């Protein structure tokens, strides 16, 4: 029987798979030390504690059924208490919405907050998971650069003064992916004041805030304005398998997200939400666990930064890596990171070229280097290989 | 500090919370026997088997990290084998995509398959989870009625003959929610032939197919055409908490869904997917487990239907309940089910009025009755209360 194959929606032609995902497939060779990934270290995840929580959850009633769209109520209570401590005010349970990882919060928020053509301000270089969602929502995207104090809020003020009216501003305020920097307290306050004065939303995307190595990051942008929607996640402090992210948002946004969550997937998993609640409520254990992750990542970060500065000298600058999982490095000697990559792979090291995070081109001399999944000696070896590839490139 | 609260997206004003969810909140009183819900019975879910699978998954490597967007590969292999048996052809792993419950498959498919204004044909009465998604996608919806053999495919043929060109047709082919009926083999073949001849997609939404009480349902619509995307789920045969649904789809659709899944939530939970794979691969245990659910639900269904026919006689007709979780009943004596509901609640019984499932109004004399979570004696008592409420209504 001959059959006519139906078409797909037109918008699909405008969407592309993540360049980084495609790159990761190319770099997945056993002999390559990959600083290209963006995963937390599975060896540091609390497997036994999760197993105990799973056994507990499954021995009690109530864990097998559908749960409420905004999340399992006891988890929301735990999160509200944590957010209250973070924001310095009493955050109600009715402000906390559990999502299927914080990526789902981004995608639901894009639907709730954006009409087609709405202006969205992102950071440059950008978190690509956010960029993908805003592009899919047909937003008009303006990217403002980061510097060592985070988003250039002064340029946002100029944009507003020129008459532009963003619907939202997206920021990874702490230990930026990919930029490695943290927004200063002054800029947080200034961003919040602009949001209040001009009436736009800020999405403060904060998966890494608890992974500080020296000192905690400044108070969240959300501490300064109710126009800020704060996102966080259990993925980096416990384990991605839980798919537990959360959002702290004002009531109108909460209701919009609830409506759309019903259509998106009805609800999350009561099982993984109970596991998350168990671990997040166990404050003594949790603080020790997160401290152990901080200590491990901090040592790795320092080893990577030390090796980069030692091997490259003034041919390269890089961020200080005071938290999170990434170092951003810029070649100052004209090396093109995209062109270097094949030689780097041949030398046995992988990274993501900065251009993969550039909103409108650029960052050709930059790289994102992930230190979370390699020990100090391996990171040092990776930098040696990178330096070797760079020298062979100059021959 | 005075602040300007930003607006939400315009499309939100057109979305409504599920009327059924709102109703369920009203009917959640301890003294009310609720036939209004739509949940599987948690008492029949394999808690200990899930706990054993969770312990196994968490004792091995690989379960804590992010997983691939289309799902954990071993789960997809198990599902491909099951789908192969169901469809009577070799279904490849690359045709099987795991979603966060089958509701997520519906929502991703609406984005992949529908341009705004595209024509979508649904069944009347409709599965409201699908209707909500198609409405959110700004589809133009035409509803065609069910009869005792399922979707009136003859009316679809008339619609096509009139020049209408649907982008997709959505059907719950087996043990319809809410309609209770199963599409006949002849209509399945006819629907597939129309899809091939006219080039439209069919979404065959099949969460209940394995819950047959007398004989298995006919071969899926998907057995007859590659233009059919088949959805199913572990929620009704194992437990909703896993949030494991799946889709069998041709490569172009698979790729579109993969692209959008990355933006929607990156990936599912490796933990719950490993649990699902464990249980679904254990064929001997699974067939015994599903048989026990069939036996329990079948006895409940028969008790409900018997009581309805016994108490109401020719004042009501109802479906035979040969599988699934629902009986659809129509008052033939002019009783308005919506008007009866407050008296029914006072008498201690709840149901969902048919109008909640009507696409363009109607079904005012109908009810959906869920038998999955009450035993036979309770169902009989519920019908007694309903009959009492009906009599008081006539006074």
Provide the fold topology.
The structure is a homodimer of 395-residue chains.
Chain A: H1 19-27, E1 33-34, H2 47-59, H3 73-87, E2 96-100, H4 102-113, E3 119-124, H5 128-136, E4 140-147, E5 150-151, H6 153-161, E6 168-171, H7 185-198, E7 201-205, E8 228-233, E9 244-248, H8 251-265, H9 270-281, H10 283-312, E10 316-318, E11 326-331, H11 337-347, E12 349-350, E13 352-353, E14 366-370, H12 376-394
Parallel strand pairs in A: 1-12, 3-4, 3-6, 6-7, 7-8
Antiparallel strand pairs in A: 2-9, 4-5, 8-9, 10-11, 11-14, 13-14
Q: Could you characterize the architecture of this molecule?
A:
Two copies of one chain form a homodimer. Chain A is of the alpha/beta class and 395 residues long. The first copy, chain A, folds into two domains: 138 residues, Aspartate Aminotransferase, domain 1 (Alpha-Beta Complex), CATH 3.90.1150; 235 residues, Aspartate Aminotransferase, domain 2 (3-Layer(aba) Sandwich), CATH 3.40.640.10. In chain A, strand 10 and strand 11 form a beta hairpin. The radius of gyration of chain A is 21 Å and the shape is globular. The relative contact order of chain A is 0.16. At the A-B interface, helix 2, helix 4, helix 5, helix 7 and helix 8 of A face helix 2, helix 4, helix 5, helix 7 and helix 8 of B.
């Amino acid at each position: 029987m001959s059959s006519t194959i139906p078409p797909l929606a037109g918008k699909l032609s405008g969407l592309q798979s993540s360049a980084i995902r495609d790159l990761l497939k190319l770099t997945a060779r056993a002999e390559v030390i990959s600083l290209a990934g963006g995963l937390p270290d599975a060896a540091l995840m609390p497997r036994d504690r999760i197993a105990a929580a799973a056994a507990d959850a499954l021995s009690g009633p109530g864990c097998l059924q559908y749960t409420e769209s905004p999340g399992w109520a006891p988890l929301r209570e735990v999160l509200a208490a944590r957010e209250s401590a973070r924001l310095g005010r009493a955050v109600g349970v009715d402000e906390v919405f559990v999502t299927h990882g914080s990526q789902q919060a981004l995608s639901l928020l894009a639907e709730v907050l954006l009409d087609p053509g709405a202006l969205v301000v992102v950071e440059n270089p950008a978190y690509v998971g956010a960029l993908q969602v805003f592009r899919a929502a047909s937003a008009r995207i303006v990217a403002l650069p980061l510097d060592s104090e985070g988003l250039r809020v002064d340029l946002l003020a100029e944009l507003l003064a020129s008459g532009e009216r963003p619907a939202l501003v997206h920021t990874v305020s702490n230990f930026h992916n990919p930029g490695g920097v943290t927004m200063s307290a002054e800029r947080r306050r200034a961003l919040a004041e602009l949001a209040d004065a001009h009436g736009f939303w800020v999405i403060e995307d904060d998966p890494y805030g608890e992974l500080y190595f020296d000192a905690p990051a400044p108070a969240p942008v959300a501490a300064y304005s109710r126009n800020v929607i704060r996102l966080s996640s259990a993925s980096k402090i416990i384990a991605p398998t839980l798919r537990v992210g959360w959002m702290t948002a004002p009531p109108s946004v909460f209701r919009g997200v609830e409506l759309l969550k019903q259509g998106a997937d009805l609800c999350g998993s009561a099982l993984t939400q109970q596991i998350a609640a168990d671990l997040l409520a166990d404050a003594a254990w949790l603080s020790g666990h997160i401290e152990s992750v901080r200590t491990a990542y901090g040592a790795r970060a320092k080893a990577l930064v030390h090796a980069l500065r030692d091997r490259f000298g003034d041919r390269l600058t890089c961020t200080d890596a005071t938290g999170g999982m990434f170092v951003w490095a810029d070649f100052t000697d004209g090396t093109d990171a995209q062109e270097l990559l094949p030689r780097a792979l041949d030398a046995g090291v992988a990274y993501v070229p900065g251009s993969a995070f550039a909103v409108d081109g650029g960052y050709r001399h930059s790289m994102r280097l992930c230190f979370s999944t390699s020990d100090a000696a391996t990171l040092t070896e990776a930098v040696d290989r990178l330096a070797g590839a760079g020298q062979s490139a100059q021959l």
